[in-house]
Amino acid sequence: MEIIILMLVLLFLRPMFNLFFGKEKTEPGLSKAGYWEAFELHALFDDLNKVKAILEHTDDTRIDFIAFKDEFMEELDILEGENNPDFSRVSEWFAPDADWDRLMGPRGRVLGTSVFKRADWWKRNQ
To answer: In angstroms, rounded to a whole number, what is the distance separating the alpha carbons of residues 107 and 89?
Structure first.
């Protein structure tokens, strides 16, 4: 009889104990795909690949253009291989009136603005 009473007390006390002292159940975190979607990383990499295509098909012999093209291609290869990409350089290159705007002029402004907004948002919220 005492055992039954003890078991009943434990059955009532355990939920009360967990209610007051137990860990709160947390929502599961974002999956990697969800994280990338939330930070628009797929769209950012799509934009960066558009930039790559434009640079590859632009015949410009200016030294600053060739230097930017080489640096960009190298940086894009690094970014694509990283688990936690750092878009600091990309953000600097595509900031308003920075390298991209100076090299491409008005024809690259819309794409440059898109890259800058996404890269800067990722960099600030990382």
So the answer is: 21
Calculate the CA dihedral of residues 94, 100, 104, 108 and round it to 10 degrees: -10
pLDDT at residue 17 in the model: 64
Question: Mind spelling out the 3-state secondary structure of 35-61?
Answer: HHHHCCHHHHHHHHHHHHHHHHCCCCC
Q: Which two tokens stand for residue 126?
A: 């990382």
Side-chain half-sphere CA neighbours of 61 within 13 A: 0
pTM attached to this predicted model:
0.70
Q: What are the C-alpha distances in Å from 7 to residues 11, 15, 19, 54, 126?
A: 6, 13, 19, 74, 50
Side chain identity at residue 38, one-letter code: A
